[in-house]
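Thread: quick sanity check before group meeting

JM: Hey all, I'm pulling together slides for Thursday and realized we never actually wrote out the predicted structure for the chain we discussed last week. Dropping the sequence here so it's in one place. If anyone has concerns about the input, flag it before I start.
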Amino acid sequence: MCPPTHVQIQRTGRRSNHIVAWRGPCRVSKLLSTSSYEVIEECSGRIFQRTIINMRPFRASKDPPPPHHDLLSHAALHPGTIIAVRDTPDSPFHLAKVLSADEIQLRLHYLGTTSPTLATAVFRLVWIAPDGKTVLKDTCPARHHHAVTGEIDTADIPDLLVASHLTLTTTGRLSRKSARLLFHLRDQLHTY
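JM (edit): ok, ran it. Output follows.
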């Protein structure tokens, strides 16, 4: 169990007992006493010290474990916001930068990677060359290249939006916080 912080309570606008407080799965790394343990969270590598009363057994299933955060922020999607989105509810997810948002639709410029490993993937804007080849670059490579863009109707957002307000490092990798949000979907990343 990991109680929510004051910042999480303010960000979500919920009471602390209405926020999921469990983290995991975790692995016990050290026995500290007869009733307390040091555990390591598998997705982030963070170390916690917990007593037996604040631990529950992990029961694996075919479904990914439920996230321990709210994936969707209540904040609006403004131009420049990075989101994780699917083409259909069952397809792999892409990262995309919001170009514009209104009551009817979101217009996106897709980001791509060639790495299937979420933790090490470097994301760049996706462009199509005149010969049909896909180019991953932060700026338009030449004036004849076309940006890979798309639109999502606002009515479809609940079915297609995986996570919002993600951040990238200066090298194009997901920030640690953003990578943790998407960790349970790491096998569903679309690569180019």
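AS: nice. Residues 6-12 form the longest helix (7 residues). DSSP finds three helices and eleven strands in the chain.
JM: adding both to the slides.
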